[in-house]
Amino acid sequence: MERRTGSRARAAFTFIELLVVIAVIGILAALLLPALATAKERGRQTYCINSERQQALAVFMYVDEHADTLPPVAFRDASGTITNWPDLLDPYLKSARLHFCPTDTQAKTSSYGLNELAFTDLTDDDPAPVVRLNAFKTPTATVMLGDLGSENDFTTPRPDTLKMVAPSGDLNDDKDARPLARHQGRCDLGFMDGHAGFLPLARFYTNQTPADLWLAP
């Protein structure tokens, strides 16, 4: 009789231990999963920044072959066919996948947009001349391209757009969009000197004096 009682007590104690282990595992998972998600997003952001750096280098290679002029956002040829800037840069890139941010699950054309004050859209009515690379006074602090794809509220998606509208500008056509802080509240950006990094909207786009400080040549 005493042996049976001891056996039941041991079985009950083992079951309680199992519940404790399960509870501990649950607590650890709850603590670790957000950290793992953050680490995964940082990896995607690193990939994104590298993609923008590669696209900036592609812009420079285009400039070298086109008399120091920057590529247009888009142009229309004699037959009426429109070519957009991602297609213009593709010959200088290892893969067209560099146009896509891994965090962006909606884009089918590009996750990024060119600075509209630096890159001319030749499909606009009465477009300005294309800009030369040597026109920039502070290339290290002038945005070339960046995470794109939001409406005026910086939240509502506006995917597959091509042109980062200046803070003082309006969304005039289907190529226009505001930057999208898709990486933990920050935008990945490529700059006119070829380097890439990230900034929150408040550091380069909103509440700036003058308003277009980071985008004007």
Short recap of the structure:
The chain has 217 residues and is α+β, with helices and mostly antiparallel strands. Helices cover 34% and strands 15% of the residues. The chain has one domain (2-204).
Topology:
Layout: H1 2-65, E1 74-76, E2 82-84, H2 85-89, E3 112-115, E4 143-150, E5 163-164, E6 176-179, E7 187-191, E8 196-199, H3 201-204
Parallel strand pairs: 3-5, 5-6
Antiparallel strand pairs: 1-2, 3-4, 4-6, 4-7, 7-8
Structure commentary:
By secondary structure, the protein is of the alpha+beta class. It has one domain. The protein is 34% helix and 15% strand. It has three helices and eight strands. Strands 3, 4, 5, 6, 7 and 8 form a six-stranded mixed beta sheet that branches. The chain has a two-stranded antiparallel ribbon with strand order 1-2.
